[in-house]
Amino acid sequence: MTAFRLAHLSDIHFGGENREALAAATDWMAGEALDLVVVSGDLTRYGEVAEFRAAAAWLESLPHPRFVTPGNHDAPYLAWAERIVAPFRRYERHIGPAAAQEWRGGGVAVRGVNTARGAQPRLNWSKGQISQSQVRAAAAWFEPGDDLRIVVAHHPLIEMLGGPMTAKVWGGARAADRLAAARVDLVLTGHIHAPFTWPYPHGDGRTYAVGAGTLSMRERGVPAGFNLVEVEDGCFRITALAWTGARYEPYRTWALDRRSA
Ligand SMILES: [Fe+2]
Ligand SMILES: [Fe+2]
Questions:
Q1: How far apart are the CA of 210 and the centre of ligand 1, in A?
Q2: Rounded-to-integer distance, Cα 118 and Cα 94, Å
Q3: Minimal CB count within 10 Å: which of 79, 94, 124, 151?
Q4: 0.85 exceeded by pTM
Q5: Could you give the CA distance from residue 201 to residue 16 in angstroms, rounded to a whole number?
Q6: Which residue ranges form the domains of the chain, and what is each CATH number?
Q7: Which ligand lies nearest the alpha carbon of 219?
Q8: Nearest ligand by distance to the CA of 220
Q9: What is the 238 CA–ligand 1 centroid distance (Å)?
Q10: Rounded to the nearest whole angstrom, what is the distance from the C-alpha of residue 42 to the centroid of ligand 2?
C-alpha cells in the first residue's frame, strides 16, 4: 500500500483571505513532508486580476508539488460578458488549466474535474454541475496500476448532511455512483467552508467525500482551517486543522477504512 501525505486547502478567496491563518498554514506546510498540496477552488473573492495575481504568487511560493482546481468564485463576478463567454480565461492565464488536470506519481493518481460554471440556466450560478462526459473522462483516466485514486473538484457531489450550505450539484449523485464504480478512493472538495468526511452510498462504501474548510474571512460556523490527509495501510487519516488565532490545532479527525486492493 502506498504511504502518501497531502495538505488539502480550499476557498482561500484572495482579496478576502484570512491573512494570519493563511500565513500560518503556509509556514506549517513548509515544515512538513508533503507529497502534494491540493487547492480545491475559490482561489479568489470576485475573480479580479489582482486577486488572481496574489493567488498565483502564493502558489509559486509553495515548496511542494501543487494541484489546483477552479471554483465558482474564480469566474469574474463583475465582468458579466466575460463571465458568460470565457469564464475561466483569467484563471487559466494566472493559475493553470481549468479542466482535467492530472497528476500521477508512485501509484497515486489525482484527477481534477471543474464543477464550476460561468453561467447556468438557474438563478444561483454558484452551485455546481458535472456533466456525464466529465465523469466518463475522469473515470476512464484511471489506470489499473493506480493504487490510490483521488478526484478533486470544487463542489461536493453529494450534500454534506447538516452542513452550513448546499452545493446542489447537477449530475452529482450520478457522478458519485460512477466514481465509486471506478474505485476512486477520495473525492476532495471545498465550497461549503466546513470540513467533513462522508462515505458515498454507492459501490463498496469505500469511496469517501472529503471536504476542506476555508482560509478566507468568510467563515460559516467553523474556524478557518485546512485538512491533512494521510494514507496508511488500510486507512485514510483525515485531520481538519483549525486556526485558533495563534496556532493550528486538530478540530476533527477521521480514520476511514481503505478498500483492500
Ligand atoms: Fe468559497
Ligand atoms: Fe464555492
A1: 15
A2: 17
A3: 124
A4: yes
A5: 35
A6: 4-257 (3.60.21.10)
A7: 1
A8: 1
A9: 21
A10: 5
